[in-house]
């Protein structure tokens, strides 16, 4: 079986596909991972073959946009530059790689090309969904970054919000251009709504556990037909180097530190890191600041704070006291696996919904960017670190994280998609 996996985002989007691809390769399948060449070392380091789409320069330019982290403007940029800009190129790559009757595609959320390809080539495609927010439910609606309906709001308000977003926002951001591209491929206009088409041609494969959807393990009955959940398919320890000697010495020299990161693609974390340093000093705790972009770090860090550069979370979090981050699904999952308390500063996309779900599990607190100050961060961390209920919840859910079972379930689902065809 030839497995084509697409990953069109940042490290949090690429790593799960790397883990899935490595598991598929172990089962004897041929794997191609389609992603930005910025991630070539990550993909090749896991023994997989990269099929490049777009350019590393485009990725760097894209992540340098401050508007990307705005709840409203970020969505527009994601669709424009993350989905529509690669639509034609990705569709052509799929045509070059696809072997009829032998190929299954796992499509990233921004990958509209694979969904069109499913229509034109009758190819089996599964939607690789990294976080529950991407699957709409009227029974269990997600928490949106700039929505008017909160998780416990009446269902009619959620339905109204969803309908308005689809017709007023999605139409402008994607649907009109998508329809033009589909027409070029000889396809008739969409009959139903965008989401009916989106998951109708590619049923969702949730790369997260059912208990992250709901603590009782029940997934909403109104999810699209063919929906499945597996677990977190971590791939961030497959190709990353070991912890640096400098970081190992720091970890060995004292009590477990608090780890802070605003996300792998964030370049505007000045306030975040300033608050991190201040909170550690208030708590008399050591800290580790993680970022690829040192220009937004404070000058003259104290000896109790280390900034070791981009570092694999898998090896670091098991030696830390708490984890403060943006709420991306990859970081959230790693925090759960490590069994450490988490403090979330959500900014956009799925981060607000992930933060809500972590809070519901009893392992996290949340602070919005405007309230993310040294004093408030210290207060939240002090409660998280001193509350025995939080400690017990962290241990409980860490015990439920099973990477190998998640990978096996995901592989079996994709294998069944090929056997069952695109129906």
Can you walk me through this structure?
The structure is a single chain. The chain starts with a strand and ends with a helix. The protein has a seven-stranded parallel beta sheet, with helices on both faces. Helix 1 crosses helix 17, helix 5 packs across helix 6 and helix 11 crosses helix 15. It is built from 17 helices and 13 strands. The chain has 423 residues and is α/β, with parallel strands linked by helices. Helices cover 45% and strands 12% of the residues.
Tell how many strands the DSSP assignment holds: 13
Number of helices: 17
How much β-strand is present in the residues?
5-15%
Strand order of the largest sheet: 3-2-1-4-5-6-7
Low-confidence stretches: none
The description of the largest β-sheet is: 7 strands, parallel
The span between the termini is 18 Å
What is the string of SSEs from the N terminus onward?
EHEHEHHHEHEHHEHEHEHEEHEHEHEHHH
Q: What structural class is derived from the secondary structure elements?
A: alpha/beta
Oligomerization: single chain
Helical amount: 40-55%
Cα-atom radius of gyration: 21 Å
Mean pLDDT: 90
- Tell me, briefly, the overall form: globular
